[in-house]
Give the backbone structure.
Amino acid sequence: MVDIESRLQNASENIKVSFVDPAIVLNKAKIRKEKQKNVKKKNGFTLSFVALALCAFVAIIIVPSVKLINIFDAPGNSADVNNGERTPINNNTSKDDDVEETPQSEGKIYDKNLKRLSAPIGQFTAQDETEGLNDLIKNVNTFSTSLFSNISATNLKKVNTSFSPASLYCSLSILSKTMDSDKNDTLFDILGTSQEELDKYFPSLIRSCNRKFMQDDNCVGREVINNSIWLDNNHYYDENVLKQLSENYYTSSYWGDFSTENDLMNKSIKEYIYDVSEGLFNPSIQFPKTTSLVLLNGLYFDDQWNELDNSLTPVGLHEFHNVDGTTKSIPFYSTHKTNAKIMETEKYKSMYVETLNGFTIDFLVPKDGYDADDLYTSDVLLEHENQTYVEFDSEGACESKIIFPEFAAGYQGNVLKPILDTFNLSKLDGFSNFATNKNTGENDFGVSSIVHATKINIKSESSGANSVNVIVSDGESKEIETEDIKSDIKYDLIVDRPFVYVIKDSLGTTLFNGTIYNV
């Protein structure tokens, strides 16, 4: 798995935020949904492919400093919580399940031991699919184009990158609930929404990111999100805010003692990250004894390529031109024919491939004279977001086909400064009404770090027609017998050079995006 070795540098310039037309986003989602309904299952054995193990984590820390050793692939076993028993992570359960009564002290949260107020997430329904949710999805996607291209500009070593707009957007949304009312306008400017709109539609966004897809009683895909806030017993916290976070923002509250039980708190957080990331992250972290609050968001997604009439097909060996000028002959895979025309601009060609449950991967391939860095910019990503794929032209229906290789990417870094730079801010502070130090009475807190970590791994693997999804996070690909691509075979788009990708769920929310420089 690839990690950015060159840590964040100062953002080169501030980027003006623009907005996406909500009708375009909604139209894209409807088109993709209708396509999924019209696909019929093929009898017998087919070769299927798996889009594997995509995960992101965001930690917002309100402390003076945090020693972050490495959140990727740290050695050692995950730790137990609560005297050897793992704390369960609940999804799709009723609100009456696994809910602890909140201990109170003068109207504030306090308990001597590590406790939990759980927040089960309800199921996504047709009632959630509103214009309000679509507007919030638009905000997530606009937030993505504004921020992550700024961070990517600091990637001097040109390693594969992966960012999760949805994960970070959700974390900042939850953070806004803990900030003082005269301070959180700053965050709403970043999020492109208001407190009223966020309160109303954020639950739908969370539910849309928490779905399980079933086929013949088998799980064939998942999109899972988890939110939590970790509190220190040496502080008082506003009980009403924690209740709102639980009931409306699906954020579980954990509290313990960072000062006297620092090892327990750190082990508990490590265990939580390990569990909700399905073991993809086994972090080595150490939050100091002065920690007052840690907010965590984890987003996990896995799906498989269609096992239907339009399954992907191995097409043989093809050369991929890496960013350093070298070439590598590797297996490529062909998509099924997509009922759309290749999107073409001055700088790039683009087409998407769809997974079994309607998730999409858009490939933006630079034309001659341009490179991937020319595409992963705020202007180009926003331009792409505002365009739709043409399904009919003057000659009738359109069909397109692309081929692409397996690829993997990751990211780890403190994105607080890029956020501040991008949106012309000096700091994120203002938590006096939410948290107060029990011993000193101090309530002047500020965000010290926003740690963003992601992993994606797009692989292919053969299986039977009735197989359930396969998740592979590490290891080498299975060998596939291949032949060189015949010269007389023509494809509308071959992803054979550094490219930009955008991964969205079936509702059009940008879950991951980034740049692939090498395979």
Summary: The longest helix spans residues 131-152. The chain is about 25% helix and 30% strand. Residues 147 and 419 are 7 Å apart (CA to CA). The mean pLDDT is 74.
